[in-house]
Amino acid sequence: MIHALLVSLAMFGLMHAARSFLPPGADAPPFSGTALAFGFLLLVAFFAGKIFATLRLPRLTGYIVTGIIAGPSVLGLVSREMLRSLGPVQGVAICLIALTAGGELNLKRMRPYARVVTWMMACVVGGCAVLCTTALYLLRPWLPFLDGLTLQQSFAVCSIIGVSLAAMSPAVVMALLTEMRAEGSFSRTVLGVVVAADLLVIVLFGLVAAAAQAVLSGTADVAAAALHVAWELFGSAGAGVVMGVLLALYLRKVRASRSLFVLLVCVVMAEVGSRLALDPLLVALSAGLFMENFSEVETTALVHEIEAASLPVFVVFFAVAGAALRLDVLALVAMPAAVLVLVRALAIWGGTRVSSSIAHAEPRIARWSFAAFLPQAGLALALPLLYPKVLPGLAEGPAALVLGIVGINQVLTPVLLRIALIRTGEANQAHALTSLDQSEGDSEERRSPRPALPG
Predict the structure, then answer these.
(1) Do residues 128 and 352 lie in contact, with contact meaning Cβ atoms separated by under 8 Å?
(2) Which of 279, 315, 410, 416 could bond 371 through an S-S bridge, CB–CB 3.0 to 4.6 Å?
(3) Alpha carbon distances (Å) from 295 to 22, 236, 404
């Protein structure tokens, strides 16, 4: 930890020295500024993630905090021009996040838990979106970015934020399941819910965003809005299937540089898709779903390869998300952010209780599953990056509010999931089963490693 801290401080000093050679108020040339910002954020955020991991906090939180400190709101080592030049990195990271989420959604493995997963996904996502939107609408006197908007326009902005807050984090859940060596019905159920919930949130976000744009522009053309949503949803899904077919063909025929090829495809998805009015999130998610469920590609192994190869992209992506956070704007909405963290938690808890009662879930699932739905990362950080397109001229305030809420949930809620895994009796269950099998016999089947988690 001391080594990582010293390296981080040295990098901050070197970046400050490099910036000192520029005239006051000037920025680095476009290409060199982009390279400088990328390299600096990659190294410093990577070591910050190690420090946070030593403190038993999520690495992602370290990446975000690094961006906040280095960004324009605090030290100003990374300017807003540099952040804008890193836009392609954000697009590629969004595609990688969605592709990984789709690749983890195996429909056959989820079949035994389909009823519970479906009801939980619907109740938790729907309840969270509705209650958060309602709370935002009631809190509008304390939300400066809603000043000057009509009641209909305010509700449209609140609905976009409410849907964004319904996003969960498959990455956090999977990381904790692996770390705690958890195995059982609780682990399988919550993993299925968080992956499927992100798919539902993406669809809802597309619908709500199209309606909100019509309301904010003052031209509520229902037919045009419906056509836009249909193209964005079904066109993106169709493009994702085509992309999934191409990926599957390449990955089945070619064994070398698979992760590099996937990364290249994500670059194409991000750049070309946005120019064709397609949603890169939905394109990548559809591609991942197709490969996992309708092709012969071993998607689980591919996902692990992607995670290893795309680490620099993810590190810079989350650091840029932190650097883009406007602390001055967040300070104005601190009270609503704290209220919304509580409202979201209550909505998720209520949704799990109602859905568990309807689907007749196991008592431990009904009692503790809410803890797996509280953490946020990935999609919850990606959606605010789309606000400038969805809410032109209004994006800074809503983005600051959502990122502030996500930051709070990133730090606090993984602890609750650890407690839930221990209380349900599934923590270290895989290790216990493996040890028991080894002590009872010498067969290779009993000495087999822990099976992969579903999805």
Answers:
(1) no
(2) 416
(3) 53, 19, 39
Q: Is the pLDDT of residue 443 over 90?
A: no
Measured distance CA(163)–CA(125) in Å, rounded: 8
Greater confidence (370 vs 248) lies with 370
DSSP letters of 339-399? HHHHHHHHHHHHHHHHHHHHHT--HHHHHHTHHHHS---THHHHGGGGHHHHSTTT-HHHH
SS3 448: coil
The string of pLDDT tens digits covering residues 237-296 is 888 888 888 888 887 777 667 777 888 888 888 778 777 777 777 788 888 888 888 887
Contacts of 212 (CB under 8 A, 6+ apart): 156, 157, 159, 160, 390, 391
Give the separation between CA 4 and CA 46, rounded to whole angstroms.
Answer: 9
DSSP letters, 403-415, are HHHHHHHHHHHHH
Separation CA 283–CA 406 (nearest Å): 24
Closest by CA to 322, choosing from 73, 97, 145, 94, is 73
Q: At which residue do the structure tokens 């750049």 appear?
A: 271
Residue 454: pLDDT above 50?
A: no
At 390 the pLDDT is: 82
Q: Which tens digits make up the pLDDT trace of 303-353?
A: 767 766 677 877 888 788 778 777 776 777 788 889 999 999 999 999 999
What's CA 285's distance to the chain center, in Å?
Answer: 12
Token pair listed for 345: 């938690």
Look at the chain and count its residues: 455
CATH topology of domain 88-433: Na+/H+ antiporter like fold (1.20.1530)
Closest CA to 203 of 172, 166, 157: 166
- Map out the domains of the chain as residue ranges: 2-85, 88-433
**Sign of the dihedral through C-alpha 7, 8, 12, 15:** positive
What's the predicted TM-score (pTM) here? 0.71
CA-to-CA distance for 351 and 348, rounded, in angstroms? Answer: 5
- Looking at 139-254, list the stretches that DSSP marks H as alpha helix, in order from N- to C-terminal side: 151-165, 170-179, 185-217, 222-230, 236-253
* Packing angle of the helix pair 185-217, 280-294 (nearest 10 deg): 150
CA distance 153 to 158: 9
- Looking up tokens 């190869």 gives 309
Put residue 427 in one of left, alpha, beta given phi > 0 → left and psi -120 to 50 → alpha. beta
Q: For the purposes of burial, counting CB atoms within 10 Å of the CB of 26, is it exposed (0-12), middle (13-18) or buried (19 or more)?
A: exposed
Q: What tokens were used for 408?
A: 């709070």
How far is 290 from 279, CA to CA, in rounded Å? 17
